[in-house]
Amino acid sequence: MWTLVPVTFALRLLSTFVQPLGSLGSSLGPLFLWLWAAFWRAGGDRSRQQLQGKTEAGEPPRAQEDSHLPTTPTSVNYHFTRQCNYKCGFCFHTAKTSFVLPLEEAKRGLWLLKEAGMEKINFSGGEPFIHDRGEYLGKLVRFCKEELQLPSVSIVSNGSLIRERWFKSYGEYLDILAISCDSFDEQVNVLIGRGQGKKNHVENLQKLRTWCRDYKVAFKINSVINRFNVEEDMTEHIKALNPVRWKVFQCLLIEGENVGEDALREAEQFVISDEEFEEFLDRHKDVSCLVPESNRQMRDSYLILDEYMRFLNCRNGRKDPSKSILDVGVEKAIKFSGFDEKMFLKRGGKYVWSKADLKLDW
């Protein structure tokens, strides 16, 4: 029963091409439909078996469905793992599960996104380098650049698990590496939760900057502005590192992730006011690569896929998942993403994101 609607739609679509082709179209038409239906059914069956009912999580109420939502996932953030070796107190994608899709299923989902119009993929977590010591991530990065030929492939990481050998194997396929760094005072990083034993987060940042230059990967810094760093002046440090972009986020609360009864974090102590965030931005107004994002700009302007490849809708201050694109396809799932394309464009979500176009002086 579930294949009737797609097949009917395909028949109508096919008829517009068959009529001008005459007898040739008539003979090829049934073969096309048979192949199409077989592919759709096989893919859906495999993904349902793999997810073992996980994708049956409740969708947002249909009243939230917005007819103006775009069906083109131009830029997608794929949080393929929730596991992390850091314990940042404000994290809003916490380690509730250790599930990671099998590599071939993840590739199938990325292929579906490319077919739907994806131009940029950003891999995140959790910590994306924690699974299989970065090999899983590297294979996805290479697949997206070599086989899907995406204009932009990027990663957001805390940087602690990246080794130079990863750059040697996969650096040529990566456009942008964004490293999370919230302070240039190591004690503040420890207070926030960006600390791991004797490793110095700031010193590691310097090393990663060098590797990005050596292996021709555009370098970016992400900072979450919160109660512990809101008074800091990072101007000289950022200018010295010279990233292509310095993304500055206002600390955000998400129900069930970093606030609420079911949350694994208690981020209320990290929250700052809009006025405090603006004061931080004003203090750094001379940093040319600064890209600010307030809570209002951030909440609905990202297309986020979770580890099951479900779009996450944050419109109600929590993450409500759609069905998986592996089960229902991109066009149907994206309708429940809560994505605000106007805000995406307003915050500068679309920019020069291919390292070939950045024309950097390596």
TrEMBL record:
InterPro entries: Aldolase_TIM, Elp3/MiaA/NifB-like_rSAM, RSAD2, RSAD2/Viperin_antiviral, rSAM, rSAM_sf. One of its GO terms (cellular component) is lipid droplet. Keywords: 4Fe-4S, Antiviral defense, Endoplasmic reticulum, Immunity, Innate immunity, Iron, Iron-sulfur, Lipid droplet, Membrane, Metal-binding, S-adenosyl-L-methionine. Residues 70-290 form the Radical SAM core domain. It holds the Pfam family Radical_SAM. CDD domains: Radical_SAM. This is S-adenosylmethionine-dependent nucleotide dehydratase RSAD2. It comes from Sus scrofa.
